[in-house]
Design a protein that fits this description.
The structure is a single chain. This protein is mainly α. The protein folds into two domains: 148 residues, no CATH class; 96 residues, no CATH class. The chain has ten helices and two strands. A two-stranded antiparallel ribbon has the order 1-2. α2 packs antiparallel against α6 and α2 runs parallel beside α10. It is globular, with a radius of gyration of 21 Å. The relative contact order is 0.16.
Length: 251
């Protein structure tokens, strides 16, 4: 069983838990897109709001940081890539390699924006049941002809369910490699290969077992989904999010 992490659904009675899943999916798209155009002041406001929302959903700082430990590696790579490739006033120089002040700024802003996107997705996943996500995706795709809405919605639901499983597999694989002394090797490519290849193999094996189990149980796409109902608070939240997005864009 996957370890309960920040990427698992957590039952609760917060404002985010009570919102209609269709509105939350729209909020996810709006905030993620507008944050890509945001700058430090607007990013600060957005970060404080998202962190407060996550704590309101009974999430802990430890679980959030633990969920981000793999994201930090990607963010570090993006930061240094920006710092090395952006022209400007040189701050650090070593032979043919130089880092600029503008590069540090651009790298920090880009990484901050990506953190906002991840935090928004984390707030969405931790407050929304996979069955509700399936129902919302199916509702959104139903008006489009020749699109298998039920199948795509089922795939989205399975992807959400598999996120904590993949994190659990990564933890187990890392523990196994650490017990074999792989961390003592100085070559980062070797360590990444020893972690990545077994993780991919175990993930595909787990997915294959899930497909066989679903087929053995005669799983059908025609299932009873949770009811979707928009209330006044959903429209009020939509108004607040739109105002927030306008503030981010024009600030």
């Amino acid at each position: 069983m996957a370890e309960l992490s920040a990427f698992n659904f957590r039952p609760g009675s917060s404002v985010l838990h009570g919102l209609d899943v269709r509105f939350k999916l729209l909020f996810l798209v709006l905030i993620s897109l507008t944050s890509l155009k945001a700058y430090p002041f607007a990013l600060s406001v957005l970060t404080l709001m998202l962190v407060a929302a996550l704590f309101n959903t009974q999430g802990s700082l430890k679980s959030i940081l633990k969920a981000f430990r793999y994201v930090f590696v990607l963010l570090a790579f993006i930061f240094f890539a920006r710092a090395l490739s952006t022209p400007g006033s040189v701050v650090i120089e070593f032979k043919a390699v130089s880092m600029t002040r503008e590069g540090f700024y651009e790298g920090a802003v880009v990484c901050w924006r990506l953190v906002i996107v991840v935090l928004t997705g984390l707030a969405f996943i931790s407050t929304t049941r996979p069955s509700e996500i399936k129902a919302a995706v199916e509702w959104l795709l139903n008006p489009f002809p020749f699109i298998p809405s039920k199948r795509i919605a089922t795939m989205m639901s399975l992807v959400v369910r598999f996120i904590p499983v993949i994190f659990d597999q990564a933890r187990e694989t890392a523990d196994a490699q650490r017990a074999r002394g792989v961390d003592n090797r100085k070559n980062p490519v070797y360590r990444l290969k020893k972690l990545g290849i077994p993780l991919m193999r175990r993930t595909f094996e787990r997915a294959d077992k899930l497909a066989v189990a679903m087929e053995a149980r005669c799983y059908s796409e025609n299932r009873t989904d949770p009811g979707l109902c928009a209330r006044l608070r959903d429209w009020a939240a939509l108004f607040v999010v739109i105002c927030l997005c306008i503030f981010i864009v024009i600030w």
